[in-house]
Fold this protein.
Amino acid sequence: MNDPSVREVRARLRGARVVTVLTGAGISADSGVPTFRGADGLWRNFRAEELATPAAFARDPRLIWEWYNWRREIIATKQPNPAHFAVADMERRFEGFWLVTQNVDGLHRAAGSQQLSEIHGNIWQVRCTACARVETNRQVPLPLLPSCSRCGGLLRPHIVWFGEPLDQADLDRSFEAVRSCDVLLVIGTSGVVYPAASFASVAKGAGAFVCEINLDSTPNSHMVDVAIQGRAKDVVPSLL
């Protein structure tokens, strides 16, 4: 990892006061977490887009919980990789730091990250459909119709499903972090899902240095300052 692009990002990080990181599925792929979408996302002839919706849960909550229990059982066997730990290390190194992740697997928290927005939710949290209470529950598997310990209402995964808005507080904090950073690292995301897809252009517009790290080029590769192709577990630690 003595590539000129890596050296340039290292130099930018050395001079940075505020750093923001955006991560997607690519950083967790190195831990063996499947995407649960696309070709490898089929489950009993269903696609994620058919299951991760409010309508699907209202129609058959047992089926949706069966799918999420299957996902939880897979993720429970996975551990943070060197890229997760490197991001957690960045939080300790910089005066200002914020992590925005599209992942719901909880691996950033497991690696020690605390300053973060999980904009799509967390698979280890559940939310009551009656009283809206959110709590962490790592039981695997959960009952197929789990109930709230406070009011007895039906629980659902605390995940932002297709057709649902992102939490406004998470959005506000994420855009604030993107607009105020000296360096933005975009790691393991294709950059096509909004609002995260706009983060690189927002950061650039505010004067930040933007680095993309991904296995392949993305629709944003042409507009960032440096695009490094490689596995997150190899590239991200080398930046430190």
In short: The mean pLDDT is 95.
